[in-house]
Amino acid sequence: MAGAPEGTIDNRSSAPLDVVVVGAGFAGLYMLERLRQLGLSTRVFEKGGDVGGVWYWNRYPGARCDVESMQYSFSFSEDLQQQWRWNERFAPQPEILAYAQHVADRFDLRRDIAFNTTVTAVHFDESAGLWNIATDRGETVSSRFCIMATGCLSETRTPDIAGLDVFEGKAYHTGNWPHEGVDFTGQRVGVIGTGSSGIQCIPMVAQQAGKLFVFQRTPNFSIPARNAPMDETYERQWKDNYPELRRQAREDSTSGTIYEKSSRKGHEAEPLERQREYERRWQRGGVNFMHSFNDLMLDKRSNDTAADFVRARIRATVRDPVVAEMLSPKDHPIGSKRICIDTDYHATFNRDNVTLVDLRKAPIERLIATGLQTADTEYELDSIVFATGYDAMTGALLRMDIQGRDGETLAHAWESGPRTYLGLMTAGFPNLFTITGPGSPSVLASMIFAIEQHVDWIVDCLQAMQQRGTNLIEAETDAQDRWVAHVNEVADRTLFPLANSWYVGANIPGKPRVFMPYVGGVVPYRQKCDEVAANGYEGFRMSTAPSQPGRRI
Ligand code: NAP
Questions:
Q1: Residue 66, Cβ neighbours under 10 Å: how many?
Q2: Residue 120 in contact with ligand 1 by CB distance below 6 A
Q3: Is the CB of 327 under 6 A from ligand 1?
Q4: pLDDT tens digits, 180-191
Q5: Cα distance between residue 429 and residue 427, in whole Å
Q6: CB-side exposure of 407: number of CA atoms within 13 Å?
Q7: Residue 171 CA to ligand 1 centre (angstroms)
Q8: Ligand 1 pocket test: which of 205, 388, 503, 511 has the largest number of ligand atoms within 8 Å of its C-beta?
Q9: What is the C-alpha to C-alpha distance for residues 130 and 146, in angstroms, rounded to an integer?
Q10: What's 34-77 look like in SS3?
Q11: Does a structural domain hold residue 195?
Q12: pLDDT tens, residue by residue, 502-538
């Protein structure tokens, strides 16, 4: 952007592209594949050195998906889903990254992706009806459409702890792990954070470290994954029935994954029967536990029974009753923060080389050259792992300077929390789509499932525009306001807003407290999206850019 006045993008590049896609994770890859089929000229910009998105960056030991492998995969290509083989019930990060790379190779996607390139600014030029897009490599391009495939959990967050620059040891963030791996053998290691990432990496780090301190502010609920090598019969059942099983996921689930449903309410079941059901699901492993009864996220009485069960399991596993108590979550309903799944997490605290530090009693004061200082103790550390999470759902979008009509910034439009119509577009930002944006099921669904639905919807929309001979689409403010109200209203009927979770932005100081994903379920959500399309893209305004009267997309 050399020579460009501040706040504007110097756009001297040649012919505009049809579409720029930001991000080459699963969303960017599938989007590119579909846009090619439409014959649209497309360029993808990706910050990382390869495809994979979150699975490119999250290389920490123990990183693995919490959706079963047979379901955490693309459904758009029958050949792909038949030929790819998963080795474990829950795929580890290297295998998922290999899958993303395979998809890129198989569909020859890399030739349209600029890697190691971060998009810094995205400005709408109203007179030309074009988006001007600038990157950190000094490149600017213009494009008719801009599609954000930037992911929901891609903007890592390191807390503002004093002394970060003073610590003389090594510091890592789980969401930006060194590619060459880290050898903690014999080291004194501190892990800060006990969300999904911390819970996955702590048992692995404990096996290597000489001494591990786990710095916990809030304990989380975690269910054993019971990961195992892929069972061939199970794999066969999926592959033989993929079309039907994918249909069920689409039409008969809340999250786009198939789980064992219950038609019973938790607090109505007999205590013994309830206990048996929890125990059965606990033994089976995975997030299916949260479907033991159909009201666990709606009725606190039922939720309490599930939470009590998990707390009892923690007490039964952890030998030191004081540590067990510290590890038992009490400040939020189970499931209201993203439920974790683990391998030997609680048992790890029985190891002689692991100490749990309660930051509620003595918070972190600062990092020091030799380690970490809490309110009552100085801990000497060789390495610190920040498992402190993400500026979720909005962070990756707002770190770019996005300006729509009249120079309105997305940061300003979202200053009281994200506002979108269906999580797909924001009023005032024409031709700018967000894949799995806030206001859509996104993180409450299986991500690849949610991505496919959004990409397919966007492609249908572009085709509809082509047929109508229009080249601009924009969310209407009224429709957006109604959708935002609906998203809030549905969330308020559940137990989700009761937790200080990243779903409501509570992990980022100063972030507006708004429940960001749509919790109404993928089936009603899809129906709404389909209805909107069937009703001529109701709530969206289609028009023709003044400078491109005859130009179709
Ligand atoms: P997270 O759930 O936001 O957890 C961050 C942890 O860091 C929390 O325990 C938090 O404590 C702690 N923390 C933050 N700032 C702190 C500070 N200043 N001092 C002390 N502790 C601090 O982040 P995450 O574990 O990376 O997980 C984020 C999401 O990514 C998950 O919920 C999940 O959706 C996804 N994920 C999925 C998988 C999987 O598929 N298995 C694996 C990893 C991540 P408080 O709770 O007190 O704020």
A1: 18
A2: no
A3: no
A4: 999 999 999 999
A5: 6
A6: 4
A7: 17
A8: 388
A9: 9
A10: HHHHCCCCEEEECCCCCCCCHHHHCCCCCCECCCCCCCCCCCCC
A11: yes
A12: 999 999 999 999 999 999 999 999 999 999 999 999 9
25 located within any domain: yes
Whether 87 maps to a domain, the answer reads yes
**pTM for the full predicted model:** 0.95
Q: Is 448 helix (H, G, I), strand (E, B) or coil?
A: helix
CA of 194 to the centre of ligand 1 (A): 6
- On whether the CB atoms of residues 440 and 423 are closer than 8 A, the answer is yes
Test site for ligand 1: of 360, 504, 507, most ligand atoms within 8 A of the Cβ: 507
- Among 334, 355, 386, the domain boundary falls at 386
Assess whether 538 and 409 both reside in one domain. Answer: yes
Determine if ligand 1 sits within 6 Å of the CB of residue 128: no
From 365, 386, 407, give the residue that closes a domain. 386
CATH code, domain with 496? 3.50.50.60
* Domain assignment of residue 277, given as a range: 170-241+249-386
Residue 20 CA to ligand 1 center (angstroms) comes to 31
Domain assignment present for residue 226? The answer is: yes
Q: 297 and 495 in contact (C-beta within 8 Å)?
A: yes
- Which atom, in ligand 1's list, is nearest to the CA of 506? 48
Say what the pLDDT of residue 546 is: 74
What is the count of structural domains for the chain? Answer: 2
Distances (CA, A) of 491 to 437, 494, 499: 16, 5, 12
What tens digit of pLDDT does each residue of 274-308 get?
Answer: 999 999 999 999 999 999 999 999 999 999 999 99
Q: Which amino acid is at 401?
A: D
- Do 27 and 68 reside in the same domain of the chain? yes
343 lines ligand 1 (CB under 6 A): no
Is 474 buried (19+), middle (13-18) or exposed (0-12) by CB count in 10 A? buried
Q: State if residue 195 touches ligand 1 by the CB under 6 angstroms criterion.
A: yes
At how many degrees (to 10) do helices 242-251 and 232-240 cross? 80
What is the predicted pLDDT for the residue at 404?
98
**Residues 403, 381 share a domain:** no
User: Same domain, yes or no, for 375 and 400?
Assistant: no
Mean pLDDT within 157-171: 97
From the CA of 507, give the closest atom in ligand 1.
Answer: 48
> Both 286 and 322 in a single domain?
yes
